[in-house]
């Protein structure tokens, strides 16, 4: 375990405003800082950094905690690795006797192994074993040696144990090889075998320059065409992008989003060095928010086939939600950027970028391709689909522009289109309010609470728990009162397991003066739990009355409730909906 004093020093040197500002654009709001949440898509800021308490909380998605929790979420790290990440940033060396202890191989160990594997693959490409791979990259893909070396491309020998033997020779264990997705283990004889075999290799590098994963491509028609690393302690597929380590330095004007590694490499080789790609899957909301950190304009350059256009449609939605201005390339005569550049050249592709379509024009083309608008029924269907799309627009001005375009392409009056769009807006508003009411009721009763599933078993007691814990978390005088024995409160008085754990950390970590820092016990709570703990604290701070009377009243409720044998029967969704309907009928 890392010594608590070292953690406190790391936090002291890691001002939360400075750390979060490298991920989120923050603006002053009184004594606090506000910004768009990096953990969910939003148009109005609900993410707040409390500089006085060195905490953050998002009132939209519930993410919250201290600077360590933020790094855990932002960098997809476990607690010990997040502490180590901040220690390096602050220039603090963690003594070897106090190195982070995590379950299984550490992130840093996997990164070291990936670096050695990347060097092995690259060396194999230029060896006799890699002749097939090098011929494929040079001749079939027309890549120069400088481009091959720039991206660190390599070759995985068509052997069951070449990489495994190499890495074992460097001291990596079987557990590390399996955890890092370097090899598999035979169920038949228990032997290790190389996961990547007979493929050209693409190292995936993060923005800090670490090799975090690999993609491998076959050179014939065998399947699967691409094989990618699964998630490891160093890599989460949904939170990384291929070539972002290069593109981030050239993203001022725009980022070009592609589907595959080869498209990105072809674009970089042709001088378009702001190209990135997702990693074998459709774009995720996390990837969209990462892109929005580096640019506000994204040009989607997906394959022109049906699958590529459907993927583009999803990307438009997620990138727009992340605050990006999205345009889409329309490539005629080629199915992807790599083929287009080979056929028509870089200059033509540059012209294509300049003439890229806006997202609504892309949607119009997609709808019109699905309907023959010379037929009345098909024109009505096309109008309905386009009006639904226009109704999703955030502003009246934007909707007016879309109404004009729909009227133009369908040869219908603006008035009729405007009326249909308004009906769609009203329907969306009614549905949203209905969902918000339902979700608020379910949330208030504790239904579906993944952080504290015991909440719903005794809502009255659980709310008293949160009052007690919130007051203790916020106010030193209450913690001192607890430490001095004034409350006569124990874990057994709490009715939820989560409440017991938070109270235990409070008791253990509070000294005789009432001082307490939850972060030194952060390894006991995951990021969602830290968010709930922060919510308890923030909720109490927003109230005007937080004196000892409030604390004693809540403790009294808690003791009375915990003395009663509460039901442990599971409350179902149907039970709650029956209660909701009953209350409606009683009104």
Produce the secondary structure layout.
Layout: H1 4-12, H2 16-21, E1 27-29, E2 32-35, E3 47-50, E4 55-58, E5 64-65, H3 67-75, H4 79-90, H5 107-125, H6 131-140, H7 145-150, E6 154-156, H8 162-169, H9 174-179, E7 183-185, E8 192-194, E9 199-205, E10 211-217, E11 226-228, H10 244-247, E12 255-258, H11 261-269, E13 275-277, H12 285-294, E14 297-301, H13 306-321, E15 325-328, H14 337-344, H15 346-354, E16 357-358, H16 359-370, H17 376-391, H18 396-410, H19 414-445, H20 459-474, H21 476-483, H22 497-509, H23 527-541, H24 548-562, H25 573-586
Parallel strand pairs: 12-13, 12-14, 14-15
Antiparallel strand pairs: 1-2, 2-3, 3-4, 4-5, 6-9, 7-8, 9-10, 10-11, 15-16
Helix pairs in contact: 3-4, 11-14, 12-13, 14-15, 16-17, 17-18, 17-19, 18-19, 20-21, 20-22, 20-23, 20-24
Segments where pLDDT lies below 50 for 5+ residues? 98-102, 565-570
At the fourth CATH level, what is the homologous superfamily of the largest domain? DNA primase, catalytic core, N-terminal domain
Structural class: alpha+beta
CATH architecture of the largest domain: Alpha-Beta Complex
The total beta strand count reads 16
β-sheet strand percentage: 5-15%
Number of helices: 25
Radius of gyration: 28 Å
Overall morphology: globular
Overall pLDDT score: 88
CATH class of the largest domain: Alpha Beta
Helix fraction by DSSP (H/I, runs of at least 4): 40-55%
Distance between the termini: 57 Å
């Amino acid at each position: 375990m890392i010594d608590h004093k070292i953690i406190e020093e790391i936090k002291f040197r890691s001002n939360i405003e400075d750390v979060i500002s490298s991920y989120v654009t923050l603006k002053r709001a009184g004594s606090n800082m506000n910004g768009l949440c990096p953990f969910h898509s939003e148009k109005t800021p609900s993410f707040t950094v409390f500089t006085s308490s060195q905490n953050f909380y998002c009132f939209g998605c519930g993410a919250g905690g201290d600077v360590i929790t933020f790094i855990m979420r932002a960098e997809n790290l476990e607690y010990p690795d997040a502490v180590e990440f901040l220690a390096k940033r602050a220039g603090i060396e963690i003594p070897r006797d106090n190195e982070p202890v995590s379950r299984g191989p550490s992130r840093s160990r996997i990164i070291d192994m990936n670096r050695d594997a990347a060097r092995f693959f690259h060396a194999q490409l230029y060896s006799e074993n890699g002749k097939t791979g090098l011929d494929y990259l040079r001749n079939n893909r027309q890549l120069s040696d400088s481009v091959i070396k720039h991206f660190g491309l390599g070759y995985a020998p068509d052997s069951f144990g070449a990489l495994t033997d190499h890495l074992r020779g460097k001291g990596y264990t079987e557990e590390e090889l399996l955890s890092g997705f370097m090899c598999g283990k035979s169920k038949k004889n228990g032997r290790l075998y190389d996961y990547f075999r007979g493929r050209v290799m693409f190292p995936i590098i993060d923005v800090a320059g670490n090799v975090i994963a690999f993609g491998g491509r076959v050179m014939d028609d065998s399947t699967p065409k691409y094989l990618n690393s699964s998630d490891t302690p160093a890599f989460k597929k949904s939170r990384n992008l291929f070539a972002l380590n290069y593109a981030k330095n050239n993203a001022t004007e725009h980022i070009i989003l592609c589907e595959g590694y080869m498209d990105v490499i072809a674009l970089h080789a042709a001088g378009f060095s702001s190209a990135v790609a997702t990693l074998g899957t459709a774009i995720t909301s996390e990837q969209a928010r990462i892109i929005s950190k580096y640019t506000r304009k994204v040009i989607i350059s997906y394959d022109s086939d049906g699958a590529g256009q459907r993927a583009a449609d999803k990307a438009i939605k997620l990138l727009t939600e992340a605050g990006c201005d999205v345009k889409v390339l329309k490539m005629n005569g080629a199915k992807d950027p790599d083929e287009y550049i080979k056929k028509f050249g870089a200059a033509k592709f540059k012209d294509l970028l300049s003439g890229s379509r806006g997202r609504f024009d892309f949607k119009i083309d997609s709808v019109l391709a699905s309907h023959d608008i010379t037929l009345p029924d098909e024109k009505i269907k096309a109008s309905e689909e386009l009006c639904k799309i226009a109704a999703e627009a955030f502003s009246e001005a934007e909707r007016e522009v879309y109404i004009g375009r729909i009227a133009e392409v369908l040869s219908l009056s603006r008035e009729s289109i405007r009326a249909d769009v308004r009906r769609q807006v009203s329907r969306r508003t009614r549905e949203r309010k209905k969902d918000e009411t339902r979700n608020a009721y379910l949330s208030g009763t504790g239904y579906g609470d993944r952080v504290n599933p015991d909440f719903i078993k005794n809502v009255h007691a659980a709310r008293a728990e949160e009052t007690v814990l919130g007051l203790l978390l916020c106010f030193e005088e209450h913690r001192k009162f607890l430490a001095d024995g004034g409350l006569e409160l124990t874990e057994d008085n709490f009715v939820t397991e989560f409440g017991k754990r938070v109270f235990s950390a409070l008791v253990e970590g509070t000294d005789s003066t009432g001082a307490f820092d939850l972060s030194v016990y952060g390894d006991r709570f995951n990021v969602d739990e830290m968010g709930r703990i922060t919510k308890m604290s923030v909720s109490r701070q927003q109230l005007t009355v937080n004196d000892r009377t409030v604390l004693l009243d809540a403790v009294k409720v808690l003791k009375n409730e915990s003395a009663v044998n509460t039901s442990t029967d599971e409350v179902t969704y149907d039970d709650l909906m029956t209660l909701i309907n009953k209350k409606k009928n009683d009104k």
